[in-house]
């Protein structure tokens, strides 16, 4: 697949990127280079290769999943313009 200047202009418009008319051939060339790299990657045989998130094997740190209240009620309510009885106070909007 080859990208021409008209397609490069369309992609730039869809991406909402302003590209001058003189720069369109260079942009089309960059797109073609990227597509060439993708074609090279498609030639690699990945049959039986497990997906991985990193090149070095490591186990993520985990913590016990425990539900808590955060114990920060006073700190959170200190920023409220109006707090009553441990809750945010808001104006009544429904009669």
UniProtKB/TrEMBL annotation:
Pfam families per the UniProt record, alphabetical: GatC
Superkingdom of source: Bacteria
EC numbers for this chain: 6.3.5.-
Catalytic activity: L-aspartyl-tRNA(Asn) + L-glutamine + ATP + H2O = L-asparaginyl-tRNA(Asn) + L-glutamate + ADP + phosphate + 2 H(+); L-glutamyl-tRNA(Gln) + L-glutamine + ATP + H2O = L-glutaminyl-tRNA(Gln) + L-glutamate + ADP + phosphate + H(+)
GO biological process: glutaminyl-tRNAGln biosynthesis via transamidation; regulation of translational fidelity; translation
Entry keyword set: ATP-binding, Ligase, Nucleotide-binding, Protein biosynthesis, Transferase
A GO molecular function held by the record: asparaginyl-tRNA synthase (glutamine-hydrolyzing) activity
Function: Allows the formation of correctly charged Asn-tRNA(Asn) or Gln-tRNA(Gln) through the transamidation of misacylated Asp-tRNA(Asn) or Glu-tRNA(Gln) in organisms which lack either or both of asparaginyl-tRNA or glutaminyl-tRNA synthetases. The reaction takes place in the presence of glutamine and ATP through an activated phospho-Asp-tRNA(Asn) or phospho-Glu-tRNA(Gln).
Summary of subunit composition and partner proteins: Heterotrimer of A, B and C subunits.
Family membership noted in the UniProt record: Belongs to the GatC family.
Protein name: Aspartyl/glutamyl-tRNA(Asn/Gln) amidotransferase subunit C
Gene expressing this chain: gatC
